[in-house]
Structures are given as structure tokens and as C-alpha cells.
Specification:
Layout lengths: L1 E6 L3 H12 L4 E7 L5 H8 L3 E5 L3 H15 L4 E6 L4 H9 L2 E6 L4 H12 L4 E2 L1 H10 L6 H11 L4 H7 L4 H15 L4 H10 L4
Parallel strand pairs: 1-2, 1-3, 3-4, 4-5, 5-6
Helix pairs in contact: 2-3, 7-9, 7-10, 8-9, 9-10
């Protein structure tokens, strides 16, 4: 049997996922949690093969307490559920010890398929998310340009961005011009929109 820990803060949604998984002959939901700080403790107690975690449950219980789950139970693999993501966020989640990512709007059998793939030692990325990542292309911005753009998106004035990043105001303006050119935006606001939609910031 594949032992599953199910973490989702909405009780009705969690019950639906539990019923879906329990319908399978080779899958058993051995524990449930609502993402209120008890994920690692629950996992250690029930020793699941797969932890299916809703990312909205406090950002996937802070991605299972930033690796503590994997450190204490290396045999347990994480499958994160979310309604949407960006290519940049997807890469970040997969770098944070997640073995798989699935869209909550996916067909029911896709969740079952994802659980089984993880147990076989494979990764699973929802096809919708994978396709979006391929369509988005590589991030053309440098790490410094991303920093400048994030601060710009927060409404931080140019002079303050310069002070925070230990740059001159002229250098910040040069970065913003390069960002606008690289994103194909008509203005800084447009560049922020394009970069955000593409998952680059």
C-alpha cells in the first residue's frame, strides 16, 4: 500500500481529496492535517510514502518547514498542490525538496498518477504547469535587474532603490531602461506586468 499524508487547510476540499485517493486499491490516506504547524510531527508519527500538501495551507506549511520533513523522513516525497503558479515559482518549489507539483483543477486521476510516480522515485509536474514553463522561455533579466524590478514593482522610488542596493541613481535608471528593453515593455509599469506574468520576478 502507498501511505499518504494529506495536508489541506479547507476541510471540505481535504475530504474530497481523501475520498478520491482512498478509492484506489493501492493507496491509503494514513493521516490528515490542516497545515497549522503539525505537518512534520504528523509525518514522523505515521511515516507516509507521499505527503500531498496544498501550497495555500500556509505556503505548503512553509514547504514542509524548509526541508525538515525530507531531513527527518528522506523516504517521504512531497507532492505540492496549487491552483496556479509561474515558471520561476515552479522552479523554486522544485528546488525546495518538492518531488512533484500538481494543479488543483487537474482531472482527479492525475493526482493518483502523480502519487504513484513519486513512489516509483520519479518526479511529477502537472502538464499544464510544464507547458506554461516551456512557453514562458528563459528569464532574460540579470539577478541585479530582478532585484531592481522587484523594488520598482513595490513602488519604491529610484533614489531609495539606489540606496538599498548601494548603487547610484543613474545606474538604477540604466537597469530600468535595460529591463524595459529586454521585456519589450512600453514603460516601467508595463515591464513589471510582463515580467510578473512571465514568472521572472
Amino acid at each position: 500500500m502507498i501511505r499518504v499524508l494529506l495536508v489541506e487547510h479547507t476541510r471540505l476540499v481535504r475530504g474530497a481529496f481523501a475520498a478520491l485517493l482512498s478509492r484506489e486499491d493501492d493507496i491509503e490516506v494514513v493521516a490528515e492535517a490542516d497545515g497549522d504547524g503539525d505537518v512534520v510531527a504528523r509525518a514522523v508519527a505515521c511515516r507516509p510514502d507521499v505527503a500531498v500538501i496544498g501550497v495555500d495551507s500556509r505556503e505548503g506549511e512553509e514547504i514542509a518547514v524548509r526541508g525538515e520533513l525530507q531531513a527527518r523522513l528522506p523516504e517521504c516525497r512531497m507532492l505540492l498542490m496549487m491552483a496556479s503558479t509561474t515558471p520561476e515559482r515552479l522552479r523554486r518549489l522544485l528546488d525546495l525538496h518538492a518531488a512533484g507539483v500538481i494543479c488543483t483543477n487537474a482531472p482527479p486521476d492525475r493526482l493518483v498518477h502523480g502519487v504513484r510516480k513519486l513512489v516509483r522515485g520519479q518526479r511529477f509536474v502537472d502538464p499544464e504547469f510544464a507547458l506554461a514553463a516551456l512557453d514562458a522561455g528563459a528569464n532574460p533579466l540579470t539577478p541585479r535587474e530582478v532585484e531592481v524590478l522587484r523594488l520598482t514593482a513595490d513602488g519604491t522610488p529610484t533614489r531609495e532603490i539606489a540606496e538599498r542596493l548601494c548603487l547610484s541613481a543613474a545606474t538604477v535608471r540604466n537597469h530600468l531602461s535595460a529591463i524595459t528593453r529586454k521585456t519589450g515593455g512600453r514603460s516601467r509599469i508595463d515591464a513589471v506586468r510582463i515580467a510578473t506574468e512571465s514568472g521572472w520576478v
